[in-house]
């Protein structure tokens, strides 16, 4: 039986990720899956006659059995789910993982080790909410790729935050310029990558950091498995920083995760792993 699914991107992100999209569609075809690219901007959601509706380019559209949602819009993903479309990643994953405050709030309830964190309550920076000594790290809750993340070493640095829109979290700093991304598909650890920077307290590969494969210890694997057994993840990147004693602290979980570092360092076909996982979930 041939499965049919939607691969959903924003138009802007699709233009930047054409090779990844082509890769995913090609891999799907080899697994007897028909995957069609759709743009989020072409959909209209709502309800009519007390029933939820979804229009594509102002027209009714037959719904697929599943959707791979590669854009950040948990409300849209939830609409698809309520209409019976299985979504990867789910609206729950999208909502929790694309808001750093929600990620930390959820994981703190599970006792996951993380840097001490305060959640800002307003849509702009407020100094009186930062009950931490200098230095501290300020992060806009919806920032991605290391953007909207600042190391605040003194009062003068806070001008970087003044007038910036969005909600913030404030954290006690971990070890600078070094983190580990664990690539996960379902409840399976695929690989781990150490990212380091000699010039910035942020270590993102996209910002010029160095990357190498990293072997998790048994203790670290156990921590990752605790996290990935609490939520039905599809494909995510679970990011850790290091405490001063070298132990892992959960930093964030990337929902629409990229795999460029994995492709550079290994021959692992994470897209194939993801599609196999999706196909297995659809037959359950």
Walkthrough of the structure:
With 284 residues, the protein is an alpha+beta fold. The protein folds into three domains: 86 residues, Rossmann fold (3-Layer(aba) Sandwich), CATH 3.40.50.20; 121 residues, ATP-grasp fold, B domain (D-amino Acid Aminotransferase, Chain A, domain 1); 55 residues. The protein is 26% helix and 31% strand. The chain has eight helices and 16 strands. It has a five-stranded antiparallel sheet with strand order 14-13-12-15-16. Strand 6, helix 3 and strand 7 form a beta-alpha-beta unit. Helix 3 packs antiparallel against helix 4. The two termini are 14 Å apart.
Summarize, please.
The protein is α+β, with helices and mostly antiparallel strands and 284 residues long. It has eight helices and 16 strands.
Major β-sheet annotation = 5 strands, antiparallel
CATH topology of the largest domain: D-amino Acid Aminotransferase, Chain A, domain 1
* Total of DSSP H or I helical runs spanning 4+ residues: 8
Compressed to H and E, one letter per element, the order equals EHHEEEEEHEHHEEEEEEEHEEHH
- What oligomeric arrangement do these chains adopt? single chain
Helix content: 25-40%
Mean pLDDT: 93
Strand content: 25-35%
Q: From the 3D coordinates, which CATH architecture of the largest domain would you assign?
A: 2-Layer Sandwich
General form: globular
Briefly, what CATH class of the largest domain?
Alpha Beta
Question: Structural class given helices, strands, pairing?
Answer: alpha+beta
Number of domains: 3
Unreliable residue runs: none
Distance between the termini: 14 Å
Total strands: the figure is 16
Radius of gyration based on Cα positions: 20 Å
Instruction: Please name the fourth-level CATH homologous superfamily of the largest domain.
Output: ATP-grasp fold, B domain
């Amino acid at each position: 039986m041939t499965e049919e699914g939607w691969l959903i991107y924003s138009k802007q992100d699709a233009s930047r990720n054409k090779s990844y999209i082509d890769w995913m569609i090609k891999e799907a075809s080899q697994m007897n899956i028909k995957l069609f690219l759709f743009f989020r901007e072409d959909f209209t959601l709502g309800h009519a006659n007390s029933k939820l509706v979804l229009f594509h380019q102002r027209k009714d559209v037959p719904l697929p059995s599943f959707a791979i949602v590669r854009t950040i819009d948990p409300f849209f993903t939830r609409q698809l789910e309520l209409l019976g479309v299985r979504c990867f990643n789910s609206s729950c994953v999208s909502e929790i993982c694309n808001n750093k405050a929600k990620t930390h709030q959820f994981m703190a309830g599970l006792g996951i080790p993380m840097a001490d964190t305060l959640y800002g309550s307003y849509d702009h920076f407020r100094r009186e909410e930062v009950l931490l000594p200098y230095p501290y790290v300020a992060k806009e809750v919806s920032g991605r790729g290391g953007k909207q993340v600042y190391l605040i070493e003194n009062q003068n640095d806070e001008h970087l935050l003044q007038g910036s829109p969005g909600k913030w979290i404030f954290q006690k700093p971990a070890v600078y310029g070094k983190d580990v991304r664990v690539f996960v598909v379902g409840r399976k650890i695929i690989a781990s990558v150490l990212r380091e920077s000699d010039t910035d307290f942020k270590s993102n590969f996209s910002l010029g950091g160095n990357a190498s494969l990293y072997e998790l210890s048994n203790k670290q694997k156990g921590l990752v498995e605790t996290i990935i057994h609490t939520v039905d993840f599809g494909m995510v990147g679970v990011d850790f920083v290091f405490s001063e004693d070298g132990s892992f602290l959960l930093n964030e979980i990337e929902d629409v995760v990229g795999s460029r570092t994995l492709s550079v360092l290994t021959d692992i076909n994470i897209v194939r792993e993801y599609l196999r996982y999706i196909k297995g979930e659809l037959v359950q």
